[in-house]
Amino acid sequence: MAKNYYDILGVEKKATGDEIKKAFRKLAQKHHPDKGGDEAKFKEITEAYSILSDDKRRREYDSYGQTFAGGGPQGGFNGNMGGFDFSGFQNGQGGVEFDLSDLFGEFGDVFGGGRGRRVKRGRDISIDVEISFKDSILGVKRSVLITKIGTCDVCTGTGAKPGTELETCSTCNGAGKIHETRNSPLGAFTSVRACPACEGSGKIPKEKCKNCTGHGILRKEEEINLDIPRGIDNGEMIRLPSRGEAVKGGVSGDLYVKVHVKPHNTFRKEGPNIIMQMPIKLTDALLGTTVSITTIDDKTLDVKVPAMAKTEETLRLRGKGVQFDDGAGDLLIHVTTTMPKKLSGKAKKAIEDLKSEGL
């Protein structure tokens, strides 16, 4: 069941950013493990804040009822909480804007020490794609053009002018992070954040790349090739690892594609099966008939309809539904009897004869 991040922080869905931040700070102080709090609860409220404090992720959560963050290995309480990757929450172009020194300065060196530098991670992004019902059944390849923060093609992400070298950052002495000590009523605490000079990489270019002005990343258009699988349902998500936004000195986020399937005039889908309606005349229902239909893959199929005992019957054509690598669904044809709007004198006489026979 999806988590309700608003309930976790105790705020309303329409809460402002300041209200969300205030609620988080209050709960974080109460539940921080270093202060004797509940570690699981602290992870949960931190995850909730990381989503709701970011406009993009908050919109995704409100729209889809789920979040698209993650990607780091599971671990204990050391910055990567329950699979939620805090390495991307550093200040830097393309990364998630999340100032740890402001929020966690009171809690000590929680996210920076003990196990070395963590890899930063770019934003996850999402797009919507509309396809036809036929393409959803048969699968389709699509190309979309999106604008996002990506790696600079000129310097390949180093930020340095091609042919020049990188040198050790003098601000952090190559560590990629800086420590700041702050005083609070509880005593002195140390916070760790990415070095603003080298953006956490520990290196700076001797000569900056002119294309990206030394950042190694920039906003640009990129063509994404999608391979939409057979049998995809309306509203399903496709995840493309590392095709999200780039961040200097780190790994790219993921791209999520939400697929919208346009309805078909004849067919609909239920699991692996394809459903269609087929009305036939009263006489065909009584005597049986053969009807030619066009399947979703544009093939002609002759369907034998036996004499019907009821006004509605369902015919099952096995293996004519959605085709998968490990099997196939069925084509279910709902046959219904249509009644004539008008009867000729001859037709009325024939029906009266049937009535006289008790039919």
Quick description:
This protein has helices at 5-9, 17-31, 39-52, 55-64, 100-104, 133-138, 282-287, 345-356; strands spanning 80-81, 84-85, 120-121, 125-131, 140-151, 166-168, 177-184, 187-194, 203-205, 217-228, 237-240, 250-251, 255-261, 267-270, 273-281, 289-294, 300-305, 312-317, 323-324, 327-328, 331-338.
**Roughly how much helix do the residues carry, as a percent range?**
10-25%
How confident is the prediction overall: mean pLDDT?
82
Largest sheet: 4 strands, mixed
Principal-axes shape call: elongated
Beta-strand segment tally: 21
**SS field, number of helical segments:** 8
Low-pLDDT sequence parts: 69-117
- Kindly report the spatial arrangement of strands forming the biggest sheet: 14-15-21-18
User: Over all CA atoms, what is the radius of gyration?
Assistant: 31 Å
Rounded to the nearest angstrom, the distance between the terminal CA atoms is 56 Å
SSE ordering: HHHHEEHEEHEEEEEEEEEEEHEEEEEEH
Percent in strands: 25-35%
Given helix and strand content, the structural type is alpha+beta
Describe this structure in words.
- The protein has 359 residues and is an alpha+beta fold.
- The chain has helices at residues 5-9, 17-31, 39-52, 55-64, 100-104, 133-138, 282-287, 345-356, and strands at residues 80-81, 84-85, 120-121, 125-131, 140-151, 166-168, 177-184, 187-194, 203-205, 217-228, 237-240, 250-251, 255-261, 267-270, 273-281, 289-294, 300-305, 312-317, 323-324, 327-328, 331-338.
- Helices cover 20% and strands 32% of the residues.
- Strands 14-15-21-18 form a 4-stranded mixed sheet. It has a 3-stranded mixed sheet with strand order 4-13-11.
- A hairpin with a 2-residue loop joins strand 19 (323-324) and strand 20.
